[in-house]
Amino acid sequence: xxxxxxxxxxxIPIFSTLQPDExxxxxxxxxxxxxxxxELVFREGEKGDYLCFVAxxxxxxxKLNQGAQxxxxxxxxxxxxxxxxxxxxxxxxxxxxxxxxxxxxxxxxRESFEHILAEHPAIGIKIMRGIALLLSFNLRxxxxxxxxxxxxxA
Length: 154
What we know:
The protein is an alpha+beta fold. It is 39% helix and 27% strand. The protein has a domain at 30-110: Jelly Rolls. A 4-stranded antiparallel β-sheet has the order 1-8-3-6. A hairpin with a 5-residue loop joins strand 4 and strand 5. Helix 4 packs across helix 5.
């Protein structure tokens, strides 16, 4: 395992509890994808079967508003992840993601994740906990933002 990739993986919150040997096992299930500025990583409504981690560059998360106009709802930098929900729920993508700059993404497919769960369940459980914590954090952040726009009950 390359020291640099192991260091990069250990900085991603989903993988932060993995030990060096577990990171080495995980590394064998990942691949690198490079995207050019303006390139779509995936489109809202597409079938999702992989999760990405930003190794370098910057991405934009785009959602269509009520007028069907695209709106950037989030910007993602190194260490961020995208596609967690699709890895778990098998539903379509909830937003589009576009490269704002030339970017490198580390990709974990559903097939590779299911292999980890079957062959290395302790690693799979740690990753699932990491995903659950990340989704919980994102839901709390979204609830806080939504509350800013809701009328008071008083």
